[in-house]
Amino acid sequence: MARPGNPRPDLSADPAYAPLKARIIARTGHHYYTDKDELLIERLHRRFRAAAVADCAAYAALLSSGAEGEAEWARLEAEITVGETFFFRYAEQFSALRATILPALIAARASERVLRIWSAGCSTGAEAYSLAILVHELLGDALPEWRVAILGTDISVEALATARAAEYGRWALRTMPPEDRLRYFTRLPPAPGIRREGGYALRPEYRGPVRFERGNLLSLVEPGPPQGEPFDLILCRNVLIYFDARTVAAVVRGLGRRLRPEGWLLLGHAEPSPAFASFLDAVSLPGTVAYRPRAEAPPVAPPVALSGAPAPDPVPPARQATEPLPADPGPGQSGAAEADAAAVPAPDPVTAPGTGPAPAAPETREDRPEEEDAVDLDRIRALADSGETGAAWRALRGALDRDPTDTALRFYEGLLARTLGRDAEAERALRAALYLDRGFVMAHYHLGLLLIALRRPHEALRALDNAVALSQALGPDTALPEGDGASAGEIAASAAAARAALGGAGSRRS
User: Fold this and answer.
1) Whole-number mean pLDDT of the chain?
2) What contacts 105, CB < 8 A, 6 or more positions away?
3) Residues near 312 by Cβ (< 8 Å), separated by ≥ 6?
């Protein structure tokens, strides 16, 4: 089953691959991989090498081998949920935390002087420690009088080990001004491995309130009342894309049940769903949407296995009832959809980086087969989802050299450029994608979010208006291509909420 010149087995031709894939999805709930065989196969190859197994049947047998199998399940689950994280990711949400959410919680909890926060799917800990830094600054001299507890949970043992060490390279601190790096961290000397150029160790005063535990978000869908003390604030960002819609609703409802009545929940920018309105109240804040508990929430049906898939293996109980998992999956969700663009003004044409004026797409592409385009996009997505952003950027540049008028490539250029902190390039690339396709819903949406971050509210309003109008022209359940399962209705609601959060930014048009 090996390809010529390639010692790796071709798992897609392995008759045991399909049942193994179905078993993995049923066990983990990661429907994200339903149409992402190349990415799943790449990650399975890593586990095959590490476990010294030859094919899918042998690996399936290993997963069924008692305690050894459970240990391998833990390693596999960590492998397929690997993601990128960095300090103070999503500036809009941290602005909302600083200006509104945490001050409200501090006021509400002033009599008890207790604050409990949960970073669900914490990966290597940057989010949990960012929260610790922010709480430290907001409480100031009153901090010793408070009991602050920040719990970070993830499925990956390796990620949690990094989190507990609290040592990071420059990449994890890339959005942080130099003066803040010196305030919150101490410099580490160069060392073999990941710290060849030196690194940064978080100062002890910011590590004290934080602890890390392993846990699984799917434990939230188990029946029964929640155990343990409730939380004042929960962050579960860029985790839900792994699950199907029913599991997402059950997990979010479980998160809501673990909040205090005055608590707050933050999700990733593209993850809100109108379905949450039956059990959570959405609160529009500048640049983002937060959720608060709603009393008497109706029950949500538990998730079911894929049709024809084996029933899920039992999920081991979490070490605590408040411990869930997955990690950040890399750049934000994306997609394109065809719509009648006459209802919205056309975006201004712009010059894409390094290409001159963007020409019209050629009528035929015989010299560039569609299969090659798909390979380029799959490779770029796989690298980005694995947190290998630099490699994804290099692959993207090569693909754009071959085809500078590919709309999806321009869109991913915008997402990756923003991840790399290159906001000007991100804006040019997103506008180039819109020049090539005025009906590109997700390009309008992400351009709007970028313009909010750049403090250009009038332009942000126009981009978000376009995203809403184009999405509403489609059926609400229409899956947006390249959207990782995001529907037109979900994106319309998210764009409308972001637009509403801008409030009195000015007139509707810039």
Assistant:
1) 76
2) 115, 232, 233, 262, 263, 264
3) 26, 27, 29, 305
